[in-house]
Amino acid sequence: MKTNLVKNVKAGFSLVEMLVVIAVIGIIAAIAVPTIGNITSQANASKAKRNAQSLASVCASAVAAGATFESTSVADIVDDLVDSGVFGSADSGFDTTLFKVPNISETEKAAAAEHLSYDTYAKMIIYAPSS
User: Fold this and answer.
1) Domain limits of the chain?
2) Distance (Å, rounded) from C-alpha 99 to C-alpha 62?
3) Could you give the CA distance from residue 5 to residue 19 in angstroms, rounded to a whole number?
4) pLDDT tens, 45-70?
């Protein structure tokens, strides 16, 4: 039996194979990058709604404890709640109780305020999500 030895064996990839692989990776990246950006924006919107719910809950608790707000502006009330908190009134059973929502940045406060409205009858902010 006669065996033929191959003397010129090329190891590695050809230029065409490399170009095909690069093209496939480019197509996958073009599909994935916008999806990742969309996920990030959805996460930010969800975080803003969660912060708004927390702020509305703290506001409702503070009003129930006898706190009053000097302003009717949602932005001002949100600033008060986040920055310094709200204390119950002296005639309430919750005298000097501090209601506060910590760790919300300026950008997050503005985003959360978009989902809040002021109820003039109850004199407090309420959660009113926008779609």
Assistant:
1) 15-127
2) 6
3) 31
4) 888 888 888 888 888 887 777 777 77
